[in-house]
Design a protein that fits this description.
The chain is built from five helices and 23 strands. The protein is an alpha/beta fold. It folds into three domains: 69 residues, no CATH class; 140 residues, Molybdenum Cofactor Biosythetic Enzyme, Chain A (3-Layer(aba) Sandwich), CATH 3.40.980.10; 75 residues, Beta Barrel (Beta-clip).
Length: 370
């Protein structure tokens, strides 16, 4: 139906561009949304509310704040044009137009569009189910007493927080000791997960059991090392339709391994196939690259205030791959390619944001007028 986006007065007399004087006409009763009025005399203005249907013959709708009313008499301005403030039938969405496609990101505006077609439910790809397994008999949860020889389990809460930051439900977090059978039971026990994140146990030490347990469970290990710093030990395996990531037990390496690899897999499972290019920022501290390896550095990105320097990158100091205190304010990470020369203050480098949320995507449906 033709309707108006603004409250005001309807004029149904012919509208011409050479009107020089205000029109003083007698007002009739107001029109409200959901109420289709009866036709009244041509030339008599009607009061109309936002969203109400326009009666046949409406020439223009004049905003309420531009109409002067004295009792039942209204003075209308002369500087309006034909069809002002009228949203004509089909002007917003024509017959046959596709509004949502399978694979589109379902934003709040997309939800509103689907609702306008009377769709109460839209088929979407579900958020992936993710489980976290922390390995190591030396780990103590935050509420446990810390005795000599044990360290805090920081990776479990951190990976859970990273997943929730992406918009996922709180994941199941399981602890496993340094025992092959116990670790295998932990993995089998979360069979319903689409993706499993294991922390620790992926290097070459005596108790680094993740590669061996993958073989015992028949999982295909795609890779177990990456030329990067920190986090060279990084495993990815496939077990039927389940994805398994083995991240370093060092918290900083674990965080960067999640941000660079696991987060991308989670988004892909949620239907997000877009490959994001890095942003570019100006370095405020010098960086010495790692020879022959990609070097990931956590940083704080702030707006630079000029077109040629939109982002400024402050590198956060760290003391090894286990340091979680220096870089805990990071909102992004810088990626230094292998073989790079030393990075000087003022150089530009690519960086990626931390914590991009996962959002539902429409799946298997299109919405259009019929």
């Amino acid at each position: 139906m033709d309707h108006t986006p603004d409250p005001g007065a309807i004029l149904r007399a012919p509208v011409t561009p050479d009107v020089a004087l205000d029109l003083v006409l007698r007002m009739s009763r107001p029109l409200r949304p959901r109420r289709v009025p009866l036709l009244e005399g041509v030339g008599r203005p009607l009061e109309i509310m936002t969203g109400a249907p326009c009666p046949a013959g409406t020439q223009a709708v004049i905003e309420k704040e531009r109409v002067r009313c004295e009792g039942a008499v209204a003075a209308l301005p002369s500087d309006f044009a034909p069809f002002d403030n009228i949203a004509a039938l089909g002007s917003e969405c024509r017959t046959g137009r596709v509004v949502l496609r399978a694979g589109d990101l379902l934003t709040p505006l997309g939800v509103a569009a689907a609702a306008s077609f009377g769709m109460r439910n839209v088929l979407v790809l579900p958020a992936p189910r993710v489980a976290v397994i922390t390995t190591g008999g030396e780990l103590a949860d935050p509420d446990e007493a810390l005795i000599p020889g044990r360290i805090r389990n920081t990776n479990g809460p951190m990976v859970a927080a990273l997943l929730m930051e992406m918009g996922l439900d709180p994941p199941l977090v399981v602890r496993s000791g340094d025992n092959l059978d116990e670790l295998a039971r932990a993995i089998v026990g979360v069979d319903r997960a689409d993706l499993i994140v294991l922390t620790g146990g992926v290097s070459v030490g005596k108790y680094d059991l993740v590669p061996d347990v993958m073989k015992s469970l028949g999982a295909e290990v795609v890779f177990s090392k990456v030329r990067q710093k920190p986090g060279k030990p990084l495993l990815f395996a496939l077990r039927e339709e389940q994805l398994l990531f083995g991240l370093s037990g060092n918290p900083l390496a674990c965080h960067l391994g999640f941000s660079r690899y696991v987060a991308a897999a989670v988004r892909r499972l949620a239907g997000d196939v877009a490959v994001e290019d890095p942003e570019w920022g100006t370095i405020t501290e010098a960086i010495r690259p790692s020879s022959g390896r990609t070097h990931f550095v956590l940083a704080v990105s702030t707006q630079g205030g000029s077109p040629d320097r939109p982002w400024m990158l402050s590198i956060l100091p760290t003391v090894g791959a286990a340091d979680i205190f220096g870089p805990c304010r990071a909102n992004c990470y810088v990626e230094v390619p292998p073989g790079s020369q030393p990075i000087a203050v003022g150089d530009r480098l690519g960086f990626r944001w931390l914590g991009k949320p996962v959002r539902p995507r429409s799946h298997g449906c299109s919405c259009g007028r019929s």
